[in-house]
Amino acid sequence: MLPPGRLGIGGLFRATWEVCKRKGLLLLGISLVSALVAVVIMFFPAVIVIMLGVFSLIAGYEDRKYDPRPVLTMVIPAILVCATLMGAVAVWLWARFTSMMVAVVDQTVRGFDATWNSAENQTRDATGRAGTLIMIGAALGFGLGAMLSVLFVTITAGDNWLSDTAVLVTVGLFLTALLIGLYLQIRLVYSLQALALEGHRGLGVLRRSLALTSRRFWGTLGLLIVGGALPYLLNTTVNFTNEAIRDNQDLAPLAVVTGLLGLALNFLVAVWTTIWQTLMYVDVRRFEQGGPGVAVPQPMPVQPQWPTPGYPEPRAPMAPEPPVAPPPPVAPPAPGILDDSSPWARRDGEGF
Which of 122, 194, 302, 309 could covalently link to 103 via disulfide, CB atoms 3.0 to 4.6 Å apart? Predict the structure, then answer.
């Protein structure tokens, strides 16, 4: 399916579109199942956090003077627990379902007819190998929850509790964490492919992605920007149209249609992004050790080392046996006659 040389931007677009045509519905189905599982798992924690947030604001301003105790005792713990759970669930869904989408793209590129079962079989143990990453996701979720908690307190308290310096420091730390997260997102862009296609586990997944993006940071960033530009423009256009329709009372019934269109577009963007990034990985992997147009040599199979349990001990080579004369030719049976060795031959007591 892929040309022998480097793909380039045009080749990536053509290959992504070809995979979309062949396996777009399958990839969209996997993305929908992943989103449904996420909604079922995270619905009640999100509702609890929202309800506690509203209640704490009402209780905090009950006497016309801000009291941070309801926020600190109810909302902040709920945000931390919910964010930790969301981080763990996000990585689990990433290893369980998004790795299946990567497997579908990989099988399609290699010329196989990918199915749900084939993708699931290829990534069956991906969740188990991602145990360390799930714990890292929970820790990152807790850190994100801590930052959101500080921002929540900053916004709700304002001048009533925090000084201007504390607010500026909080915003600065948040922006710094955002930039660091953006950098890591680019360097770790191939982590999912390393987990699903190369069999790495734990921190080895992250190290593999760092190795693949080493000395390719700006090229990787450029390809990610180019690949995400079209979905971003479409998504922005739909969202802008939806906001314009909501502001117009005469077009209010169309808001439901544009809202559903925006939701469907989000799933399509997820499918497009997964295909694009997987093809970037395939292109880098094919030419990882060579220059442009030089394919990566396939590794030779590992020979067993002696002595190895289960293998016979090596012996001195024996003299070659003399050639055996071929048997004399046998005349074929007469037409219409089946010999006893034929599966269709009549046995004694059978037939008529």
Answer: 122
What are the φ/ψ torsions at residue 273 (nearest 5 degrees)? Answer: -65, -40
* Token reading at 143: 């850190």
Q: What would the two tokens of residue 90 be? A: 């996000």
Residue 158, C-beta contacts closer than 8 angstroms, at least 6 positions apart: 66
pLDDT greater than 90 at residue 104: yes
pLDDT category of residue 314 using cuts at 50, 70 and 90: very low
Please state, in angstroms and rounded to a whole number, the distance separating the CA atoms of residues 31 and 36. 9
- Six token digits for residue 178: 């955002």
The letter for the amino acid at 260 is L
User: Half-sphere exposure of 289 toward its Cβ, with a 13 Å CA cutoff?
Assistant: 5
Residue 251 per-residue DSSP state: G
Instruction: Write out pLDDT tens, residues 173-222.
Output: 778 888 888 898 899 999 989 998 888 888 889 999 998 888 888 888 98
Is the overall model pTM greater than 0.85, yes or no?
Answer: no
HSE-CB at 2 with a 13 A cutoff on CA atoms is 25
